[in-house]
Amino acid sequence: MRIDIVTIFPTFFDALDISLLGRAREDGILEVGVHDLRDFTHDRHRTVDDKPYGGGAGMVMKPEPWGEALDAILGEQVPDDGADREGGPIVIFPSPAGEVFTQAMARELSAADHLVFGCGRYEGIDHRVFDYAGSRASVRLVSLGDYVLNGGEVAVMAMIEAIGRLIPGVIGNPESLVEESHEDGLLEYPSYTKPASWRGLDVPPVLMGGNHGAIATWRRDAQIERTKSVRPDLLPPAQSP
Ligand code: 6GU
Q: In the chain, N or C terminus with fewer CB closer than 10 Å?
């Protein structure tokens, strides 16, 4: 997979060199390009923002640098003719006004060949940038959840980690992916390791008994209990009597 990121804080993404995703990049599974939006300006101050039409607080990101950045990244990949974009690049703009990012979305996006992330700052990006990007690629506005961040960088980092680890070959043991929170619609069961007794706290005996059926049942029950108490919204609606 190829990932391009447009941001006014390129060093923020230095952290992508480390850990699992750093290894995936060394192995050639993942290719990442980080682009400084200010490199696509032409004035002495490298201006990327201006006052909003209609007034109001804050600044809005100007469309011109975004247009040039998208042109440089997308190149001739998709003609501007409204053709079928299936399989083409997907441009993602992090936004608290977007659809909520989920494990299902991460899995879907992990199958793409090319993702482009556009990190907005200030009060947002001139809306025409989304329309223009939509004429060149599939566009999605995506939110991490119901709270406000100062800019898209932290959100994009989270999305890249969630997506990147689902790309085949990135995680050494793919089986570790199937029993995680959210993969089967439930939160994951609690895990324990040695010692069996620690500071007066004991590991549930069933996990040490070697009865695999009993262990599976205990884990499933623990998942359901945990989900009921912390995230009842994830459970199917209760049966009416
Ligand atoms: Cl994706 N961006 C910003 N700026 N704030 C957010 C968010 C994204 N998701 C939740 N809050």
A: C
Centre of ligand 1 to C-alpha 215, Å, is 39
Residue 79's pLDDT band (boundaries 50, 70, 90)? low
Q: Which of 102, 125, 140, 143 to mutate to test the pocket of ligand 1 (most atoms within 8 A of CB)?
A: 143
Calculate mean pLDDT across residues 158-172: 92
pLDDT at 82 over 60: no
By CB atoms closer than 10 A (0-12, 13-18, 19+), residue 4 is: buried
CB atoms under 10 Å from CB of 160, counted, come to 22
pTM above 0.90, yes or no: yes
Structure tokens given for 94:
């992090």
Paired sense of beta strands 114-118 and 90-100, if any: parallel
Q: How far is the CA of 239 from the centre of ligand 1 (A)?
A: 35
The residues lining ligand 1, judged by C-beta closer than 6 Å to any ligand atom, are 94-96, 142-145, 147-149, 151-152, 155
Supply φ then ψ for residue 126, to 5 degrees: -45, 125
Amino acid at residue number 53: Y
